[in-house]
Amino acid sequence: xxxxxxxxxxxxxxxxxxxxxxxxxxxxxxxxxxxxxxxxxxxxxxxxxxxxxxxxxxxxxxxxxxxxxxxxxxxxxxxxxxxxxxxxxxxxxxxxxxxxxxxxxxxxxxxxxxxxxxxxxxxxxxxxxxxxxxxxxxxxxxxxxxxxxxxxxxxxxxxxxxxxxxxxxxxxxxxxxxxxxxxxxxxxxxxxxxxxxxxxxxxxxxxxxxxxxxxxxxxxxxxxxxxxxxxxxxxxxxxxxxxxxxxxxxxxxxxxxxxxxxxxxxxxxxxxxxxxxxxxxxxxxxxxxxxx
Length: 292
Ligand SMILES: Cc1cc2nc3c(=O)[nH]c(=O)nc-3n(C[C@H](O)[C@H](O)[C@H](O)COP(=O)(O)OP(=O)(O)OC[C@H]3O[C@@H](n4cnc5c(N)ncnc54)[C@H](O)[C@@H]3O)c2cc1C
What we know:
Strand content: 15-25%
Radius of gyration: 19 Å
CATH architecture of the largest domain: 2-Layer Sandwich
Order of helices and strands: EHEHEEEHHHHHEEHEEEEEEEHHH
CATH class of the largest domain: Alpha Beta
Structural class: alpha+beta
Helix content: 25-40%
Strand order of the largest sheet: 4-5-10-6-7
Shape: globular
Distance between the termini: 51 Å
Bound molecules: flavin-adenine dinucleotide
């Protein structure tokens, strides 16, 4: 289908210009365009009918990956391809590179951005789930000049729904410096390798000097409720040595508790099996990275 008529197009070069372009529109009239990998499909199908587009491609200050004293900041317009190939992002941030390396196909990874993915927050998206598992924060700037920072748990509200207000631009996603012996991982499974998954699992763990797990975050993609934590697995991983028996029990408990659904891609039982098998594999990799 052809898109509905779009009245205005702006291509700002700075964050200030982007927010100024947004403030010239009525609330809800304009949308930002990042990689366009979700927005353009939604505009063509008329699911989105913006009056104005504010294209962020030329805003250099929204791009790039900064590591300072272990703390990580990724600009909202940083592409999957740049995250996937950044050799500094192993260990505690391994879930981010795992997710970015396997999003869609090469074209999607070369255009799609971390900011677009978390702001779209599609039900089965990989990056929101990896950001949730690793405890990222969303840093937002508003047309009023106000800024705020929200934990992923408070930002990702449900499928295609976030806490971002219409007058806000996502500036970056950031993480505090991780504790020693922290590792994370993400994996997805789908009917088609180069597309959104049926189920995705992200895990982050921290071990103390004796090998005891002192921090565990588990997140799932592909449930009807969108990216969400898996407390049933987190509780069992905490305090454990990250051994195979505990990991098995943790993901069996999560699979039993998860609100899975049936659709054309997979039935509810199959989704439960995927949570168990992928969860085992991902948690093992997260513990291996924590020990490395
Ligand atoms: C063929 C194909 C396969 C795919 N496979 C996968 C997959 O395997 N895994 C997966 O997770 N995803 C997959 N996707 C979705 C992909 O990840 C999209 O790129 C992503 O959802 C959107 O990122 P974008 O940069 O393209 O954002 P856009 O599509 O440009 O924007 C998406 C939304 O976010 C808003 N937005 C963007 N940036 C900002 C900002 N800085 N501040 C405020 N709002 C903003 C826009 O206004 C828009 O509403 C696939 C897409 C395609 C086309």
